[in-house]
Amino acid sequence: MLNFKTISYAAVAIFCLLLIGEGFLYVSLWWYVLLFLSWFWIVMIGSFSMSWGLFLKAFTSNSKMEDRKVAITFDDGPNPNYTPKVIQLLKDFDAKATFFCIGKHVEEHPNLLEEIVANGHSVGNHSYSHSTLIGFKSTEAWLVELKDTDQVIFKVIGTKPNLFRPPYGVTTPHLAKALKVTGHVVIGWNIRPFDKALKNPEMILNMILKSIKPGSVILLHDTHEHIGTVLEQLLQFLKKHKYQMVTINELMNDH
Ligand SMILES: [Zn+2]
Description:
Layout: H1 4-22, H2 29-47, E1 58-59, E2 69-75, H3 83-92, E3 97-101, H4 103-108, H5 110-118, E4 122-125, H6 139-157, E5 163-164, H7 173-182, E6 185-187, H8 201-209, E7 217-221, H9 227-240, E8 244-245, H10 248-253
Parallel strand pairs: 1-6, 2-3, 2-7, 2-8, 3-4, 5-6
Bound molecules: zinc ion (ZN).
Zinc ion is lined by residues 75-76, 126, 130, 167.
């Protein structure tokens, strides 16, 4: 697994080698530019790829899983237009899931969170604001996002979530520092069908089905009009192929 410190130390080491090399032969300035750009791009791409583990360790799937178990996850809710339908479908197929809720949405619809928990699903923290520029927040600002959401969830269900999923899957050194304080387990995914952006349920479903295997973590959103169609067909497929749909905690702890 890549690590931010290792990459940065390696970049500094190569920089020093180039400086030493200058004593013996001509080193073009472009080598320094290339070195900086390589470091920059690795860090940029790594901040969007939780499976790289550049800034923090995240659970993205259970690759050791042999039983046919998968975790379906829903981000950005609860949403009064779509979450009830999702809960009903999960119930119909005897499936358990994990909902990564936005703090301000929980505040607006506490009854939906109660319903999620009453149906045996897990709940995770997905920040309080989910603002577009959340990736640029300081450690202190991240701590407010994390703690406010924990508090809002605690008020409704009486426990604080132990799981956190970063909005947009973006991780930074500031977020990593904040998470060291709060102790949340960071959850990513290994199947992302872009269900919010794609308008074609069949396309979304195909993206999931071509990658699914025991131990998979599927990222969906209970915030758009196609979720009912996609989820129903996905659950039918999983049932037909004898998969069990479990919470993230069960998938993580099952070897
Ligand atoms: Zn989100």
